[in-house]
Protein 1
Amino acid sequence: MDKIVIEGGRRLEGEIRIAGAKNAALPALAATLLCPGKFVFSNVPDLKDVDTMIALLKVMGAVVKKEGGVVTVNTENIAHAEAPYDLVRTMRASCLVLGPLLARLGTSRISLPGGCAIGERPINLHLKGFQMLGAEITLEEGYVNANAPDGLSGQKIYFDLVTVTGTENLMMAAVGAKGTTVLENAAREPEIVFLAEMLNKMGADISGAGTDKIVINGGREMRAVEISIIPDRVEAGTFMAAAAITGGFLRLSGCDPSHIEAVTLKFVEMGCKITEGKDWLEITGGKRPHPADIETNPYPSFPTDMQAQAMAVLSVADGASVITESIFENRYMHVAEMRRMGAKILLKGKNAFVQGVDSLSGAQVMATDLRASASLIVAGLAASGKTHVRRVYHLDRGYEHIEDKLRKVGAIISRQPDKNPK
Ligand code: EPU
């Protein structure tokens, strides 16, 4: 296993091209199961999670080719509607195949995802939605069986809480249901809008994506399409944090600033100067970040996927900040590691009280999830001495060659074998 080693204290300067969004690519790949045909995706990020989704599609009988950022998926023959434990265990988003398989084949079976490093993360709302569309759901030997031998029929579904993959799964199932489905209290993330655009291009009739009420007129004939994956707003936000903490200047090209307004405004509050165009953004960090209070909530609020990276920046602010994590119950695993670097952070329930310190010092740190890993890299960029971020496989799930991108803008960062990986 590898680790990332950073020699901190360098001001970053230059241009970084933002990759396609992991959380848009995963549902888009799952959506290929909805109908037979040959799909072509461009701007697909080179990530472990994308490889896992491709492996899953192959298990089911799809023929998939990945060349650079282009992935072709042929779904003429889908013979095996099952997501096995070994793949679901490594990536919860595997559950996104349930909806499209139910819609196309009237049956699907996936290993029920267990708890994860950031929270319990049940999929009860996905399953409740499928039941409302007429599927019979049973649990057997750790697997969820979903069956709708007579097909699905449209319904009004209210989500008890806002769920991103839940909305995506139900949207895909509803495309294959007879009649109209209305999703109330739906998630509004840009990735939902992107999926709806892809499904409409395939022949579906979906309106309202991007609002909390999505209407799907199901039962249309679907066909394969070519589509480009939207830019990764969390990757862009992570590099904004890197510029903010090093007092640097970064131009982020190929991003969509309209997807990250809540994040942009927080960095402005922290003292950064930001200018943006349609598909680029420039950020200049101040001498030292100012404090800012942050509360994570569903889009368009501040995203939970940026909480840890923002905390790294605020850990060296010239004052005190309060961060409230409202989405996941256990997404503060990075705090203990940041404390080892000298950060002063107190946790109380959903709140983290961050008292900015003058500087952080490099240390050996261990990450437990994707965004926590990214936050430790951000912290390491500003810390004196060397920071070793271990368990780098988390990072590879969601950041495309992050060390190469940071090195090109002046960071001293390398990937090295971890001789003591435990
Ligand atoms: N929840 C339930 N029941 C459900 C579904 C969700 O209780 O059936 C709860 C969750 O436990 C959580 C909250 O609802 O407390 C919101 O979770 P959501 O379902 O929205 O999360 P998700 O769809 O599993 C996606 C992203 C996450 C991101 C969250 C929140 C993908 C593949 N994953 O997860 O991304 O943090 O939305 O925005 O889109 C990441 O990229 O690092 C990542 C974790």
Protein 2
Amino acid sequence: MTVLAIETSCDETAVAVLRGDGSRRELLASEVASQVAAHEQYGGIVPEIASRNHLIHAPRLVDRAIKGAKIGLSEVDAFAATSGPGLASSLMIGASIAKGLAVGLVKRYLAINHLEGHLLSPFFGRNHESEIRQNVSLIVSGGHTMLILVRGLANYQLVGRTVDDAAGEAFDKVAKMLGLSYPGGPEIEKHARAGDPRRFDFPRSMLDSENFSFSGLKTAVRYLLPKIAVILSEVEQSRGITETTVRRSLSIPLRFTSVGAQNDLCASFQQAVIDVLVTKTIAAALKYHFDLVTMSGGVSCNHELRRQMREACTRKGIEFKSAEPWLCTDNAAMIAFAALLRLHAGFESQVTEEIDPNLALL
Ligand code: KG4
Ligand code: ZN
């Protein structure tokens, strides 16, 4: 069975072609067109720019993926698209193209939940292709922070979720405060590498709950900032007194008391997020007696988070599996993988199925 999947839930346009039977899978093509440059100057995603770019990129990527897979469009058995959660105007583009192809070529259509794509991604990779096993899954992305008990495909139970900001959102917002570029996660990670994670004492919120909260942490950074950095006045700026290490086009002109202060702030912030994610994930695995922890989503690219989560799992005798780095941020391979598993399990969607910006996983 061959699946072509389209992912356009946010600001990445992606298309993948995956072939497989029940146990073996072969990724024939995976294309991603990033829009980071188009949104960077605004410090976040602008929905209309995102959907206009999807409209430009998606047809080209479908073409490239089909050529790369060395198959004809008619050889695709099912067309899949992310149907939510995400930006309505972005979701619409991918879903409409997939539905159009399914109707035109008289093939099956599958609407896939973006979060299920992330959730299953630790089980898919170029090097390991294992069966879905019972696991505690931590999804940490720009829009979501969730702990889920996975008992099998489509058998999910929510343990906890963020009550305010998602972990990735906190990285992005703090980065913006520091005048770093978007997306903020990789930038903060880069600065954190040279910093001292014990320098600033940030809050670890709601440690006794199964839910998460990151807005207090963000506020703590905001309160600390004036103590270790000054916003340069126009006069100072016009005199050319700028801090080159933190200056970017349209960013806040900040001068830290030292470059070390900025690195220490990034390291301390990152460690506060990691402590919360690791503590709650391990607590859930122990409480529900699960011997496998998986982690996915953009924030799970973070090397320090991966290292500390693996170490914490090992200490408790729990196996740990994270999505391969290329599968952590948004891509269509994970959507194709979820679609293929669902097809084999007998699921199918109607082309009348609508996109849903708030689509729930469970
Ligand atoms: O999964 P994803 O590509 O999109 C969503 O579905 O939200 O996640 C994007 C998020 C952004 O907030 C980005 O800052 C964060 O993942 N991110 C990271 C890292 N790489 C990406 N956060 C921390 N450390 C990283 N290395
Ligand atoms: Zn995502």
Protein 3
Amino acid sequence: MSYKSHSHAQWSSRMAFVLAAVGSSVGLGNIWKFPYMTGESGGGAFVLVYLICIFLVGLPMLMSEWLLGRLGQKNPISTMGDITRRLKRSRAWVLIGVAGILGAYLILSFYSVIGGWALAYIQMAVVDTFSELNNDSVGTLFGNLLASPVELLLWHSLFMIMTIGVVVGGVAGGLERAAKTLMPALAVLLVLLVGYAATTGAFAEGAAYLFTPDFSKITRDGILAALGHAFFTLSLGMGIMMAYGSYLSDDVNIGRSALIVVVMDTVIALLAGLAIFPIVFANGLDAAAGPGLIFQTLPLAFGNMAGGWLFGLLFFVLLVFAAWTSAISLLEPLVEWIEERSPLSRVGSTIVAGLATWALGLATVLSFNVWGDFAPLGMFDKFAGMTLFDLLDYVTSKLLLPLTGLATVLFVGWFMGRDELRSQLNMSDGAFALWRVAVRFIAPIGVVIVFISSL
Ligand code: PHE
């Protein structure tokens, strides 16, 4: 078969594609957000719902975005425009692309601030701050960082500059090559941390917390949070995966590649949880500490273990890399959109997009100190006590992503022909039928139920 003679080139291009997708999906969502959300939502039941969402909604949805992108071959808005025109469907579906760009912009504004926290912890590791930490001072250390708008601003700015730098320079290829070794390194380091967690004496407790569902602890809002996080962690509902799909050659097997990305993303998140919760319980820390959870637990571990200085440094460097590759993919849609619709060059568009994101990031920076008590929607019970950062997180993960996700699966499931879809997905008839049931029924009905019940 001629396929054989080409198989190497195909394999390497598929590798590059999968790597880019993993680079976007594995990031702060896995290591920072997943553990703290699990802790806030009471553990195992949240994890179970999250896993169900990942495999029943996230996986079919990832495949849908890729196949749309491959069919349209353009940026998300133009892709949806072309496909709807060809299939004679309403232009309103283009809103999927618009909502996606908005979502990516809002997310990056706070993502960069958290990426900045990780940068700050690199510096702390370098000056060996972790070695004298105890249960109290690890919290104080984090609290002091948050209390200083100037420090947060500096780190946020640095993270944004790093992101803009890569997107401007078009050196994403270099970063991707680096990611090829750094991602596995991150996984290895997480496994080592899990190994350390096993020595704390609370490993069984931590594992049970993650994997024994106690449904009395989960709320409807927790279920919506799990669903939204499935989208967040897989970079779905923002047109990003659609854009990646547009570079996809016809011979890449979408189903298999999607499964690889989803499994890797899930494994990294679960490893992070397995590393963190034993440390939480062994030291009597608060599992529901919120967004500071990893920053208030892992440094304790680094302070206690032999060579912890080095491990701490490595960990935060790798975390920054993972966040960086995700941040680049978050900036890209806005840059492309500006470049297409304005006379600005690529460089100009990137700088404008970056500056606009940086500026909105100030809202998050101030949410942790000066505006800590400012709850703009506090007059509504549902949003009581939510800072601007909380609202940005809420609006993106619990509104925008699930809604654009819903629109995408509805479009693919109900407004595209079976034969066209079949020709895009090179999989067994059984797997295809299963995917179609997920896209037509399970995912949309699931999203609608979760959505309505939490409102
Ligand atoms: N998936 C990334 C993470 O888990 C974040 C992200 C969201 C990146 C949306 C791109 C788009 O950290």
Protein 4
Amino acid sequence: MAISQQVFLRDAMRRLNLTRDVFAARIGVKRRALDTWLLPEGSQEARAMPEVVARFVTEIVENSALMEKYAQSAQSGPLRDRIAAGGKHQLLSVDQFTRESVEELFRVADLMQPIARRRKVSRVLEGAVLGNLFFEASTRTRVSFGAAFCRLGGSVCDTTGFTFSSMAKGESIYDTSRVMGGYVDAMVIRHPEKGSVAEFAAATNIPVVNGGDGAGEHPSQALLDLYTILTEFSRLGKLLDGAHIVMAGDLKYGRTVHSLIKLLALYRGMKFTLVSPPGLEMPEYLLEQASRNGHVIEQTHDLATGLKGADVVYATRVQKERFAGENLEGYTADFQINRAIVDACCGPDTIVMHPLPRDSREGANDLSTDLNTDPRLAIFRQTDNGIPVRMAIFAVLMGVEGLVQHSLRDVTWAPPSHIGPDDSVFHGLD
Ligand code: NCD
């Protein structure tokens, strides 16, 4: 670095307009460590800041300059207007994003990290109520949307399944949506039919988020997946442009990969290898959409061939609940992503992802648990990222993202430094 570390850090804090405490939290280090990096060179207590921190600080400063540029540009207007669907502040499909707007959303997610990592609290959504309407099985999507809303100071009302909802009495989507709109300030909806969440959204003017519509889309999952890939690549010093992404499993009915391939196609020069058992290939319209802009797409039924040279391996569960006559003949025991195949086909910098849940029962052929202690397995870093990304989605749709930074207060409790016993060293909360 041409300038001294001390000047570099002071300049970054000034540009970001952050105190030492907030700056330390923002870059994910202890205040004590930051203090030692800020001491004049040659002083006994002074320490050199790790290279990865310097890179991260540069990135934050650049992004904040970008955010400022967006904010100043009268033409661009608030992010929620630029990603609006049908003139409404809703998130129904990743088609609403450009590369610029998705990265802008991620800068908001970065702002949420001190809250998601339980160092800070905020109440920018105090008084707001979220309606979480899940007409299909869910654990992490429903709870993480709820937790994200609560961590911004809002509260949550839930309904799960058809049995206990008035839809079991024949109520239309229109009526349900209009009624709920009178009770809550935003809705997240998961429904087994493709296109149904858009129907809900058409019947209300409050923000609606698609939490998964059948085999259609799962935009918030794809956003947190992309955020995870970018975060992991930044740690590994890799660029997403030109990366080799392998998607494996049920690509026909897996909605997470439907949304993710569209988002990744916003980048340049990608190579996609799509590995599925026969009959469960990625739908044609998505292949066409992704092959625009010169991306390379290869398809295979053979896992070992497909995994070679992957930067990211994204495994998915077989969506048996959506099968319409397909059988599982091609889904043999050698279709499992496990330590042996990852060691044989992938490098030390490959990351292994999965939207979860994975089927861990005997003979299920899903992502194996034998990778649990392998740092390449990013599945829990991925689920953890669900919170800041979903907080960012709410903050943007409700127009409060500009209030977050100055609303932060210290938490009163002390979380464990690592949430999971197998978490990698770089994955701690501290
Ligand atoms: C996925 C879903 O529901 O589409 N899960 C999730 O939301 N993380 C994937 C799946 O169910 O296999």
